[in-house]
Amino acid sequence: MAFTLELEEWVGSVWHRFITRRASVDFPEARVELAPRQRSLALLLRAMGGDGRGVEAASERDLLLRRSLLQQIAGTCRQLPLAWCDADNLRLPASLAVFPEAALNEELYRWLALLAAQSGPMRHWGRDNQRWTRRLLQRYPALRGRYRRLVEAHLQLRPDSASLSRPEAALERALCQALREPGSVAEFPRSERAAWPVPLWLYPPLHLASPLAADLEDSPEDLATTAGEQAGGRKRASRVEDQSRDGGLLILRLENLFSWTEHVDLDRWADDSEDPDSARVAADLDELTLSRTRLRKGGGLKLHLDLPPAEVDDIPLGEGIHLPEWDYRKGRLQEDLVNLQMLVPRDCQPQPLPSRLKPSAQLLRRQFQQLRNDRQWLRQQPQGAELDMQAWLDFHVERAHGACAERGLFMEQRQTRRDLACLLLADVSMSTDAHLNDEHRVIEVIRDSLLLFGETLAGLGDDFALYGFSSLRRQQVRMQELKAFHQRYDDHTRGRIQGLKPGFYTRMGAAIRQATRLLAGCKRQRKLLLLLTDGKPNDLDLYEGRYGVEDTREAVLEARRQGLTPFCITIDREAAAYLPYMFGANGYTLIRQPEQLPLRLPQLYRQLTQP
């Protein structure tokens, strides 16, 4: 019996491969993928006037085609890859194998990107595509040869009109004429079945023929995928009314109550657990059905933080500062998009250094004292302790040639001040309220790090500034001034540091841009921007995932273009997944034992500032 079942499975798999291959209209040996060409196509689309659109993969579309008997047996040609545009993206097939040559399939990708750059709102599929094609060929006559090759190759693969019914044959002839001479066909015959797909044209966006289609505009948070889910092509979706009554009211009579010791099985109408197979199941589905009354699995209490009242909030310093933000989807900076407010902590009394940190502070001062006492030899001095042999040789050669400039011939050793300025930017978002262990929270480690860092640099004599930052959407990026460059490091600064409280979210790009502006005002040759954080950038609005990472990366690049040295110090063990992209492979470090951060931070500063 087992042998028979295995034989049946083997025969079935062989038959499936055979019939599918015979019924396929594609050319697998010439298939090209979208993924490696996605970036170049997006650049081509924007360069040709694509209005900031991106390029994304599109799922296959259902078409009511006349299929051959072989295709009906194999179950193929029900769904076909088509290109279309929505408000933000050009949706291209994830792979193309419509031509027997890979070069033609690659050329088809480029043609669709060029056509999308000329496209607008679609009112009639046939007339609009002809108009866009004619406009593109008139503007760029060099494309006519490429277009002709694509058309001739495609017409050879289209069905013979003699084998079709009269309405279908009339529609097929009209389409062939429209492809050969764009703009020559004004009216297309009607047919009960769709024409064979035209891969050189754009198709209408997916619209839902349901009365509830207008309700599909859910927020990104409601329909967001969980971590680890596969990000594939866009799915078709439809709205349905949930007729389930499992979640209705439960009516009991008191005489039916059981005693406390009896076990009662309750049928819960919703499950709070995550389904580990949900991503796989969603990837296999062609259509997703959405309902208003169903709850997202793994649901829990979700709180959005709000600003405290003005009388208890930190004290604002002047008006808000308008800063730009990078939108990777449009490929440009959006000017004055973010409002940043400089603040001073309220009701922070001057405090001395905590006694538990005094031994560490004394140890660091002794270690850094030698940097303060570094002495350098100054050459070509009019007087000094030693003769400058290089200056004497230059003087001797110039005198031998009849040109003798006045110069000092001695060397003198003097103590010089380091030409260096540093700004330390600390993340004080709500995530820093988490516990590292049974004794310490992240915010406590950050406070200790700022205190020891300030004690060390105050003893060293380098110019430095200390700031904390958090955010609540783009309208309220908060930057706490703990010590500005012109201020002394004293008990007032120590009190502000010890009064830091975690709150809100992490909009890194705006904080880095403001820190860059502050450092730009320092008249020092070397400028170091240190970022101390426990996680990746995030906020309540679009500042999640790739958007936040791309904006932070652009802010870091802007700082480097102004001559600054940005460096990130993190305790996030997942940092290797995103920090190399934002700061570069050598632009960050991970502290694997966060409780060691207060002592490690000054040592990192010493390594970064060594000449």
From TrEMBL:
InterPro entries: NorD/CobT (IPR051928), VWF_A (IPR002035), vWFA_dom_sf (IPR036465)
Domain VWFA: 419-608
Coiled coil: none
Source domain of life: Bacteria
Name of protein: Dinitrification protein (NorD)
Classification via Gene3D superfamilies: von Willebrand factor, type A domain
Pfam name, any one: VWA
